[in-house]
Design brief:
Blueprint (H helix, E strand, L loop, with lengths): L2 H16 L14 E3 L18 E7 L5 H8 L2 H6 L3 E7 L2 H10 L4 E4 L1 H10 L5 E10 L1 E5 L14 E4 L5 H12 L14 E4 L5 H7 L4 E5 L2 H7 L3 E5 L10 E8 H6 L1 H20 L1 H16 L5 H9 L1 E3 L5 H13 L15 H9 L14
Parallel strand pairs: 2-3, 2-4, 7-8, 7-9
Antiparallel strand pairs: 1-3, 4-11, 5-11, 5-12, 6-9, 6-10
Helix pairs in contact: 2-10, 2-11, 6-13, 8-12, 10-11, 10-14
């Protein structure tokens, strides 16, 4: 990282640590993790990859992490890892997964773009690499139709986002600015009152009438609709080709350097899982919900699961240009000093896997490892 930017970036990242800035609420809540290892048996005659007894995979019990949910439930990862055991841990917040990755408690993880940005910049580009994509979309502005009938009616209302500085909070602040309205990013006060509310309590607050709407990820958005809300805006419509990153795959740089064959096996399983999901959406939705129930203790009801699933696109492409744009929006909102994201992506292995599968390579938008 350039020396003349390091002190300014450290100041910005001090804010990141305190909030934690940009921790993707679509990924969950809190800081706990739990073992989510499956009981899938290793196939007879299989060999260990890179001599490893296990590969430790982290993800969140959330539909935006459908690749990991389905890959675990259907055994795709275990199949590719052979006699190396696929071990899983579920997390409730981006920072806790980054901490686990840095501590060596997990090797590879599914995570939102903003925690990945934080983890990379706070370590001066030494902790992790984004090695693949997983999901796009699944974020909506849902409102009380009795109080808000058009986008202009949002002015003067109380709208929830999951957390100060998280990905949806930044997106909403950016949208507010585009309307020409003013809001203080830290307090949330202004032409719109931005209420930072945990996604687990937002539906009840909305039902009670203390919120007029929320800019939230799935499945919270569909939970609000089930409580009588109306989708006023799908964030996907604000992005080119209606695609923006919501979940990426990260790996510790140490593990990537020492065990590239294991990383390749996980990425191959990810590509195979995504292909199966897109070819079998009904079965995949059921598999994701079954694993979600195992991980969280509660499956999603059909009235929430079905619309939430439809709004999420499963993809191998990390949609790198949109990650860069999300960082720019955070800078514009005054919540982050300009980060140096050069080298955050290493898509070498993924593109090798895609080529072998007859698929087109993906691009790092100028932010890849040189």
């Amino acid at each position: 990282m350039p020396a003349n930017r390091s002190s300014a970036l450290r100041r910005g990242l001090a804010v990141a640590a305190a909030l934690p800035l940009l921790a993707l609420a679509a990924c969950g809540y809190g800081s706990e993790s739990k073992d989510s290892s499956s009981d899938q048996k290793v196939a007879a005659g299989s060999e260990k990859i890179d001599g490893l007894d296990s590969v430790r995979i982290g993800y969140f019990g959330n539909l935006t992490h459908a690749t990991a949910l389905v890959g675990n439930q259907k055994g795709f990862f275990q199949k590719e890892l052979g006699a190396t055991k696929a071990q899983y841990a579920t997390f409730n917040a981006g920072p806790s997964e980054i901490e686990a990755l840095n501590a060596g408690s997990i090797d590879i993880g599914w995570i939102g773009p903003s925690p990945a940005i934080n983890g990379y910049t706070k370590s001066d580009g030494k902790s992790l690499k984004i090695i693949g994509g997983s999901a796009s979309g699944g974020v909506k502005l849902v409102v009380d139709p009795d109080k808000i009938k058009s986008l202009k009616d949002v002015k003067g209302k109380r709208i929830a986002t999951p957390q100060l500085g998280n990905t949806q909070d930044v997106a909403f602040l950016n949208w507010i600015a585009d309307q020409g309205w003013k809001v203080d990013a830290q307090s949330g006060k202004g032409d719109v009152t931005v209420v930072r509310s945990d996604n687990k309590v937002t539906p009840d607050a909305f039902k009670a009438g203390s919120l007029d709407g929320a800019w939230v990820p799935e499945p919270t958005a569909s939970k609000l609709v089930a409580e009588g809300g109306k989708v006023l805006l799908d964030e996907a419509t604000l992005w080119p080709d209606q695609k923006f990153v919501i979940t990426n795959i990260i790996v510790s740089q140490k593990f990537l350097k020492e065990h590239p064959k294991a990383v390749e096996a996980v990425l191959k399983a990810s590509v195979e899982t995504n292909k199966w999901i897109n070819a079998n959406p009904g079965e995949a939705k059921a598999a994701a919900n079954k694993q979600l129930e195992l991980d969280s203790g509660k499956a999603l009801p059909a009235e929430v699961l079905d619309p939430a699933w439809k709004s999420i696109q499963i993809t191998d492409d990390p949609l790198a240009s949109t990650l860069d744009t999300e960082a720019e929006h955070a800078v514009k909102a005054g919540l982050l000093e300009q980060p140096d994201l050069a080298g955050i992506y290493d898509l070498t292995i993924l593109n090798k896997v895609l080529e072998a599968a007859g698929e087109s390579p993906v691009d790092a938008a100028g932010l890849g490892t040189s």
